[in-house]
């Protein structure tokens, strides 16, 4: 019985890990974040907020890259970030989200193949001026959902022919 349990555990771990091993990866660099347009935290500690923003967006880039062929690397160098909304000071500092304060991100990317040759590269000035229009149900409960939706739209536009169905 123990052997059967061990075999099942091994098979399950292989099934869960194998797809991850064959997916492309993302490497994100945050260049001079102190000069970014707006990653102000409101009431949260500035350093922790910045770390949370970067972690969330790095994870999202990784999820997007996982749709690309195995052994490829998507390198992102972020040079500016402006989160949706604007921090207003009153009794408390809060982020007010209005259509006037749309999300923006400036970055360059390189998609490298298994031989580390550049497949695609570009400088991107991304913005979503209609971020409050339409349905954003996928990320309605996520932190930085407007930015994630904006990145999804960009990724689906740029990498449509590279995406691998899994």
What does this molecule look like?
- The protein has one domain.
- The chain has helices at residues 2-21, 46-65, 145-158; strands spanning 25-30, 73-82, 86-89, 93-96, 104-112, 118-127.
- The two termini are 34 Å apart.
- Helix content is 33%, strand content 26%.
Question: What secondary-structure arrangement, pairings included, does this model have?
Answer:
Blueprint: H1 2-21, E1 25-30, H2 46-65, E2 73-82, E3 86-89, E4 93-96, E5 104-112, E6 118-127, H3 145-158
Helix pairs in contact: 2-3
Keywords:
166 residues, alpha+beta, four-stranded mixed beta sheet, 3 helices, 26% strand
**Into how many domains do the coordinates divide?**
1
Computed structural class:
alpha+beta
Task: Describe the main β-sheet briefly.
Answer: 4 strands, mixed
Our measurement of the CA-to-CA distance between the termini, rounded to an integer number of angstroms, reads 34 Å
Low-confidence stretches: 4-9, 11-20
Shape descriptor reads globular
- SSE succession: HEHEEEEEH
The count of strands amounts to: 6
Proportion in helices: 25-40%
Radius of gyration: 19 Å
Helix segment count? 3
Biggest sheet: strands side by side, in what order?
1-2-5-6
- What would the average pLDDT be, to the nearest integer? 85
| Beta-strand content | 25-35%
């Amino acid at each position: 019985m123990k052997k059967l349990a061990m075999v099942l555990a091994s098979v399950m771990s292989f099934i869960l890990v194998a797809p991850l091993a064959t997916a492309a990866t993302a490497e994100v660099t945050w260049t001079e974040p102190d000069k970014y347009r707006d990653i102000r935290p409101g009431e949260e500690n500035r350093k922790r907020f910045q770390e949370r923003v970067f972690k969330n967006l790095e994870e999202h880039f990784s999820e997007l890259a996982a749709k690309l062929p195995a052994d490829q690397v998507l390198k992102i160098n972020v040079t500016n970030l402006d989160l949706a909304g604007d921090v207003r000071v009153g009794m408390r500092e809060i982020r007010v989200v209005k259509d006037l304060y749309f999300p923006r991100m400036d970055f360059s990317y390189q998609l490298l193949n298994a031989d580390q040759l550049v497949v695609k590269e570009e400088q991107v000035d991304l913005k979503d001026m209609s971020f409050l229009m339409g349905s954003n149900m996928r990320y309605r409960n996520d932190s930085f959902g407007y930015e994630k939706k904006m990145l999804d739209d960009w990724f689906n536009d740029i990498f449509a022919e590279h995406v691998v169905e899994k």
